[in-house]
Amino acid sequence: MTICMYDLAGADPALRFSPYCWRTHMALKHKQLDFQTIAWRFTDTEVLAPYYAEGASRLVPVLTDDKGVVTDSWAIAEYLEEAYPGQPSLFEGEPGKRHARFIKFWTENVLHPAISRMIVLDIHDCLDPKDRAYFRGSREKRFGKTLEEVVADRETTRAEFLKTVSPLRSVLKEQPFVSGEGPAYADYVVFGAFQWARAVSRFEIVPADDPVNDWRDRMLGLFDAYAATFPAA
Amino acid sequence: MTICMYDLAGADPALRFSPYCWRTHMALKHKQLDFQTIAWRFTDTEVLAPYYAEGASRLVPVLTDDKGVVTDSWAIAEYLEEAYPGQPSLFEGEPGKRHARFIKFWTENVLHPAISRMIVLDIHDCLDPKDRAYFRGSREKRFGKTLEEVVADRETTRAEFLKTVSPLRSVLKEQPFVSGEGPAYADYVVFGAFQWARAVSRFEIVPADDPVNDWRDRMLGLFDAYAATFPAA
User: ipTM exceeding 0.95?
Assistant: First the structure.
């Protein structure tokens, strides 16, 4: 049985924008595994319901293969590492994985909220019409304001964001990838955040002359420019 | 020849507060190496001059042993790892080191500036009188205001700081140390920042019920409570 990933999609089913799903896309390419993706939308909760305890069935990626089902991008990475030990390693050992966890949380706690404040309205506008009411309602509740208000001053958000990415920028001045000389899972985690923005928004979150942008270009070029072949806004 | 470290000291020569030197203290203990420290003060530039190109002689730690001299805390860690391969590893291999670099830059670019804004006046007050004019002049130039003005609203700085440490807090909910099941160099880098504050200031930068505080206590307890035996404010 082929490896399958349920992957969040926009109105255009080729538009794939979930930062968590992008981690898994890149992890599967890194491990040189064949896979197919299944376009999934926020309101397709019944599709994922069998894989989740009640109520939580709105989370992708979900990965299925002939051995079973794995949910959660980090657990999927750990699973791939274990299930396919002969393929290139995502963490290069336990110490790499333990350290990568910090980068994962930095991405989720710092990068994602900042990027979200720049692109959340663009995400909404890319969605399948059936997803829009759910998305607007849940995100406006989270932010405590309308999506239009959230992004109204995104130039200011960007200025703060560009300060926030300073540890990433400093690392990339010393080594070509977050994980070292070559890309590994920590890169895919951070790249997921940038790919999220690229998919849905024309708002440039990083200036062209930033070392972070050079790294993003390197990431887009990996695996025969795999990520670059997906639709961008 | 014994390993020696030039270590920044306060008016009380036993008071050791440099976050960079604390990395090296802990790294030397981790590697189970005997060493002695030499109390050094900001104005002792002539002492370090032989080890530096002109003008840069105000940076510690500097480590000397029978093989030579190493400056810069990261370079010292790499040196110890290479020169004493039979001792416990600081990075547990190249992937661990490459990932730890991100944590180093996060500490330097995010934690240090925030902590500095809470304790810079306390640092000043701990210094040997001969160091105070240099310290006040250089730091007030950096901040563009008096030391008193910098720390005037440190409760607000702390509230921001406690948000900023969120990736660290998240990691420590999943594993007992930044580096995983046991402490390694990434822990010492982050711990250096906290030990800096502990040495000079009674202002509690982290509340007692924060998982970050539990980790700091674990760090203070390592190597027969080595770090805890040093003077605290």
Answer: no
